[in-house]
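Structure, all two chains, one model.
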Amino acid sequence: MLILSRRPGESVTLGDDIVVTVVSVNGNQVRLGINAPREVRVLRDEIYKAIREENQAAAKAHEQKREMDDAFKRLRQGSGESTGE
Amino acid sequence: MMLSNDYAKDRGKAPVSNYAHAVVAGAVLDRHLEEQRLFFPVGILGFPESRRYRLEIYRPEDGSESPFLTLKCLDQDLSFALIYPRSLGLDYRVPVNDEMLDALSATSAAQLSALLIVTLRERIKDISVNLQGPLVINSASSLGLQLVVEHYPLRYPLIQRSAE
């Protein structure tokens, strides 16, 4: 990991298009401003990791149809309530 | 994509309202259309290279109706089970800003639909729906994005059991 020190108002440029600026520091909290092209998703790291992990858990491969058939059958049997509209 | 609204304020400019619009789930698939090809310009989180997909209504093997859809990737062996928010009886709103509309080639949030990824698990009570990372789709342009709506839960149980 590259470690740099910055003071409020100073910035770090990533590549040619992304600029991270330290806006202010208050105690142990740093306020960051991010300027990036719209195709670059900017997220708090823990949020990004949580969603990525959930996407990975949800992602299936070729057995998708069979898993869905199986889950749907179980849903119909196991639950007295309907899952649909 | 700007993260902090205060950034503009601290720079002496008037703060911009990032979210002037809202998305309410519409219907992407006309029930008479079997499938729709979609393109996700930046993929979905964790799968940035997987961009081309086919969205289909899921038909259970016994021919019955289901509220599910499948999103099958054409770039790699990958597929997701999806559901419409309204199938869960949810008043679900995804705030979108102008940058998101642009990215989807939409001029208004009314042109967009939200679909939710279902995580299938062994026990049906563990099957959950991701409300925090909806797939937002413009069916006219066939473009899609996964957005992040932090105030919604990541794992919303599909089966809501009433008190027994």
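Chain A touches chain B through 47 residues (CB under 8 Å).
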